[in-house]
Amino acid sequence: MSSTLIRGGTVVNAEGAVRADVLVRDGVVAALGTDPSWTADRVLDATGMLVIPGGIDAHTHLEYPIDGFTTRTADDFHSGTVAAAHGGTTTVLDFVKKEPDRTLRDTYLARRDTAAAKAVIDFGLHAIVPPRAQQPDVLDDLRRLAKEGATSWKFFMAYPGTQMVDDGELLEGFELALENGVLPMVHAENGHMIDRETRLLLESGRTAEPFHAVAHGHDSEAEAVHRAVVLAESVGTPLYVVHVSSAEAAAEISRARAQGHRVWGETCPQYLAVAFEDYQGLGERAAAYLCSPPIRERANQQGLWTFLATGALSTVATDHAGFCLHQPDDLPPQKLRSPGYFPKVPNGVPGIEDRLMVLWETGVAAGRIDPCRFVDLVATRPAKLFGLFPRKGAVVVGADADLVVWDPAADHVITAAGSHMRTDYNLYEGLRVTGKPVHVLSRGDHLVDAEGTFTGTAGRGAFLSRGKPHLF
Ligand code: URP
Ligand code: ZN
Ligand code: ZN
Ligand code: ZN
């Protein structure tokens, strides 16, 4: 296999930064330091640049079925992972939603094969635990899945009638997770509160797209986070709360952590860099911004930053669930299929390619977090929590050479036209960023170079059978 020497850069890990060259051989980091005698097939000049671990996006929805499996998100495992790589992400963790005619485990195995044929970067899969009525023996499947690399399971506290599990199912699932060394994840919104608010809004004619955010109030999110934390604590299991959008919800996590509970919160770039005020007046185009939990008012952002800097929010993932405004030929109508009527808008926003650049710009460049915290949020903490550390998530000898040479002084404008995601809009259109990936390596393969030339082939991405969570 080939070798690469990344010379002259500053290696940034979560624990600290140091001037060092990185020698890559046989797909792993072979040495760190400065030795003039090191030679390699290829030398990359990283003078003035940072060398960081490849990003790990712990929350993506590629070719993800919605609406009773009648449509799916716009990016598949090929386009989505190509876009991720261009943005400096070298691992994605996606989800398995049980198909109606298959068991959860059969769906998992089929999805693993589908993804393995298309992915250009490494990937793992979280299992979504369906309501028991959909598969009475699902606990048997979950036990097997834990041994087959799915060491994280997601529970929905929203979407009654399709995905929502009740408190009894949560308790039973948390118990099983604890017994099997699995990290439970919750989509924490109170589905009944949202359904009631939605009914009241529709009855009074308030059906326009921005009312989605009114239906999904702060209180429904904070209530569900509080309940999930209390239930997890009663069982004694650690807990991961996905896509925390509300500062009130983050405060629940912060309080629990202060009491010694092992709870981690994830937030997403759309909650940090976009606000309700940005789409409130857009008419039906507000559909482009609809996701659950919703993108909230600007005043909420400061609280999220405080919790990101202090720890209650421990990861930044995208929840990439892109839908088009104007349809490509191969998919049914998506974001604009029912203008003026928010309940029919598919939930989810794109961002798999933008995550690092947006967090760098709004976090590091804005002076809210430092580069080490940035690396922790986008790579190291997700690697630890999802059983990939230290193979992934740090620039250390022996780790996979998933590396990004990062220019901290770039000048780049994010646009849909300049992106590789299949969605026909970019949530961050026009955002000028001062940090961006210049070279992206996955297990030593040079996927993206300084000119943006992409060399990864479909199917080179490997399935990651993940180990137990690393909870410190
Ligand atoms: O609106 C969202 N977040 N869509 C993706 C599915 C989910 O609940 O994470
Ligand atoms: Zn969710
Ligand atoms: Zn999601
Ligand atoms: Zn390169």
The computed structural class is alpha/beta
Spatial strand arrangement across the major sheet: 8-11-12-13-14-15-16-17
> Number of DSSP strands?
22
Shape field:
globular
Q: What is the CA-based Rg, rounded?
A: 21 Å
Q: What is the class of one domain in the CATH system?
A: Alpha Beta
Main sheet makeup: 8 strands, parallel
Query: What is the second-level CATH architecture of one domain?
Result: Alpha-Beta Barrel
What is the typical, i.e. mean, pLDDT?
A: 97
**SS field, number of helical segments:** 13
**Low-confidence runs of at least 5 consecutive residues:** none
Distance between the first and last residues' Cα: 35 Å
Q: Can you give a write-up of this model?
A:
The chain has 472 residues and is α/β, with parallel strands linked by helices. It has a domain at 55-372: TIM Barrel, CATH 3.20.20. Helices cover 30% and strands 21% of the residues. It is built from 13 helices and 22 strands. It has an eight-stranded parallel β-sheet, sandwiched between helices. Strands 3-2-7-18-21-22 form a six-stranded mixed β-sheet. A hairpin with a 2-residue loop joins strand 21 and strand 22 (445-448). Helix 4 crosses helix 7, helix 7 (218-235) packs parallel to helix 8 and helix 8 packs parallel to helix 11. The longest helix is centred in the middle third of the chain and has 18 residues, at 218-235. Residues 187, 242-243 line the site of one zinc ion. The site of one zinc ion has 3 residues, from loops. Its cofactor is Zn(2+). GO terms for molecular function: dihydropyrimidinase activity; metal ion binding. Its EC number is 3.5.2.2.
